[in-house]
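pipeline stage [seq->struct] | target=NAD-dependent epimerase/dehydratase family protein | organism=Halovulum dunhuangense | residues=396
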Amino acid sequence: MKIAVLGGDGFCGWPTTLHLSDKGHEVHILDNLSRRWIDTELGVQSLTPMDSIQERTRIWHQETGRRIHFHLIDIAKDYEILKRWLAEHRPDAIIHFAEQRAAPYSMKSDRHKVYTVNNNVSGTHNLLSAMVETGIDAHLVHLGTMGVYGYSTVGAAIPEGYLPVRIATMDGAEAEQEILYPTRPGSVYHMTKSLDQILFQFYAQNDGLRITDLHQGIVWGTHTEQTRRHPQLINRFDYDGDYGTVLNRFLIQAAIDYPLTVHGTGGQTRAFIHIQDSVRCIELALSDAPKAGDRVRIFNQMTETHRVRDLAELVSRLTGARIAWLPNPRKEAPENDLVVKNEQFLSLGLNPTTLREGLLEEVVDVARKFAYRVDRSRIPSVSAWTRDIARKVERD
Ligand code: NAD
Ligand code: USQ
């Protein structure tokens, strides 16, 4: 297949690109490199030394003989360029990773809120509109998030996107209807993913676009089979208070002897998936495209759930790291349970990689190797969800 990977220079996009190229697909990356600019804005860098995208693709060609094409396009701002690109290249599939994906970054200030909404919602809408206008019949696979569901304590398992509801009809009878599972986003970033869902629903219903939305949990790990092949193919690996995600942060903190930064009581339960499985899930989703006229296909892309304090205790047992119990900069339930259905990927053949000690140690080893690149002052998560929380965090 000819596949466009939007956001292919990022943490999930780069290993996915390599995996699909390895499988023999013709892969084109469309990326505006905004993530690299955000590193500059924040004064941080990936823990792992990342080469330019051009250099990365050159090394891949040298190692495998396969070409990955790179196109510098901002999908939120360059609508006409995106449309021309699609009309000219007519990809069979489009994988859409190209959004601002950090909840803390989206809550930093009003400017960051506005940027995140403009970038994510316009980018997704531009893509959908350009797909209709060019008449291409590509299967769109979007990376959404488990966070759209919110983390309720109802106790029922979260279904894969849709919820059957019984409603009273005008004549007093009852009718059954399936609705999108109601969203309850916990940050401006997560809110943009909820808005994406409505855009997808409209374009699938109105124009017959074929869309799969992957509600992904927190991705952990760094290497995949392909990124291990050459030091310059290494994946990016975020540790800072905005972009570092919880388990990867704990593993890096353990490697540099920094107390593990648990927010509040650490009672938050979240869904997780290893980067190797994330890449594999995308391949599986591509192999099972919906037909025109089908509703949006929604998969829960996660393999296990864990409570934050249990992860901290596990990493502490493994490495001897201390745990710091910090005031929570976020507005979120201090404790929640989470049960998630993920039968669709299992039935397509996913064999989940679970939190094995070997894999956790591999991440700690990578972090130790590059520990000299860590700026410890960038580890604390300082983006507060509200002014009151900011004052409280400062006081405590
Ligand atoms: P990332 O920030 O590392 O990568 C995103 C890429 O998209 C970057 O290379 C960035 O430059 C590019 N991009 C952003 N806006 C763009 C635009 N307007 N035009 C062109 N390119 C643009 O993020 P990631 O961790 O690789 O996440 C990828 C996707 O997966 C995101 O949509 C995110 O919401 C989703 N996701 C990530 C995780 C996770 O734990 N990392 C979990 C669940 C879902
Ligand atoms: N947390 C800590 N300590 C830390 C960092 C985080 O206790 O040092 C806590 C947070 O308070 C939160 C939980 O860990 O309760 C998860 O935080 P996170 O930063 O790992 O994940 P989140 O903000 O939800 O975002 C990440 C990705 C995002 C993706 C989402 C999937 O950045 O792109 O959509 O995970 S999910 O969480 O399933 O919505």
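stage status: PASS
auto-comment: The chain has a mean pLDDT of 96. The chain has 13 helices and 14 strands.
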